[in-house]
Amino acid sequence: MPGPFLGPPSIHLAPLCGKDEAGFVPGADAETALALLRTLALDAQGAGVSLDTLTVTEADRLLLRLYLDVYGDSADCRVSCRSCGESSEFALSLTAIAREQDEAAPPLRPHETHWRLSGGARVRPPTLADLVNTGGDGLLSLVVEGDADRSQVEDWLEKAAPVMAFDVAAPCPHCRADNETRFGLAAFLAARLAAERPFLVRETHLIASRYGWSHAEIMALSRVDRRAYATLIEGERSAGLRSARRSA
Ligand SMILES: [Zn+2]
Question: Which pTM does this prediction carry?
Answer without folding.
Answer: 0.90
